[in-house]
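Write out the 3D structure for:
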Amino acid sequence: MTFFDYPSKLLENAVNEFASLPGIGKKTAFRLVMHLLRQSESDVERFGENIVKLKKEVKYCKNCFNISDNDICDICSDKSRDRTIVCIVENISDVIAIENTRQYRGLYHVLGGIISPMDGIGPSDLNIDQLEEKVKKGGIEEVIFALSATMEGDTTNYYIYKRLLQYNIRITSLSRGVAIGDELEYTDEITLGRSIINRTPFDNQK
């Protein structure tokens, strides 16, 4: 059943496109489309052009897989960052969440997801091999697990832990200030910042 009978097929199509986005229902999608209709043609064209440009031109950092305008992201290019520490995250939104705490000055490695057999996502679908290669090259002294505290996140942590156990590095995890089931992007900055500062050895959590 539709939200209501749309007076225009073009309007209905636009609403359906917005409603296909995560967290956007039909009513919110309708309000967004009506907002665009009230904007000038040049504003709407600029909006559309920026979306297309994002899709066509955005890059992923060759070092950490963070989103970037260049081959190497600003974080990896920053010589003031501590290159002996790498924080493992699920996606780009987690990088932003941790950066907003201003409590972490190391580098990142974005997996691009977590192991989830129910969704058909296995280790080979993630950037895990690249992580091990990075550790194998040397120079990294600590790897921090900062995945969401879910069953899938924990499964991914243990899998990576086993892969990295052979290397002479410290493996830590966020303290459990981040509640079970929480995703990092929805955790408040103070709690997340403290969980980074108070991180604990991962082998103590097995």
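The longest strand covers residues 82-89.
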